[in-house]
Amino acid sequence: MNERIKQILNQISLLEDELRTALLEQEARMRYSIEGKRVKFERAIKEAHQRFKVGIFPWFLTVPPLNFLTAPIIYSLIIPLVLWISVSHSIS
C-alpha cells in the first residue's frame, strides 16, 4: 500500500480514538451513557425532565394567538405535499 494512504489511515485511527475519548468525557460531564442505540440518563436528570415537563393543555395557554391562526394553514399543506411526492415518484 502507498505510504501516504497508510499515513492517512493512521491519522483516521488517531482521530477516532480522540473522538471516542471526547464522547466519553462528555457522557461523564452531561451524566448520560449510550447503550446500543439508546441514550440512558441518570435518575437525577430524568427527575429534572419530569419536573419541567408541561402538559398539553397548560402549553396551549402559553402559545401566542398568531400560532393558532397560522397552524391550520401550514398543516393543510401536508396533503398537497404528500400528493406531489407520490405523483413524482410514480412518474420517475
Task: Describe the SSE topology.
Blueprint: H1 3-30, E1 32-35, E2 38-41, H2 43-52, H3 56-62, H4 65-76, H5 78-91
Antiparallel strand pairs: 1-2
Q: Total number of helical segments?
A: 5
Number of strands: 2
Show unreliable segments: none
As a whole number of angstroms, the C-alpha radius of gyration is: 24 Å
The percentage helix is over 70%
Mean pLDDT over the full residue set: 88
Query: How many strands, what sense, and barrel or not for the largest sheet?
Result: 2 strands, antiparallel
> How far is it from the N-terminal to the C-terminal residue, by CA?
43 Å
Description:
The structure is a single chain. The protein is mostly helical. Helix content is 77%, strand content 9%. It has helices at residues 3-30, 43-52, 56-62, 65-76, 78-91, and strands at 32-35, 38-41. Strands 1-2 form a two-stranded antiparallel sheet. It is flat. The model has no long low-confidence stretch (mean pLDDT 88).
Brief rundown of the structure:
With 92 residues, this protein is mostly helical.
Spell out the key features of this protein.
92 residues; mainly alpha; two-stranded antiparallel ribbon; 5 helices; 9% strand
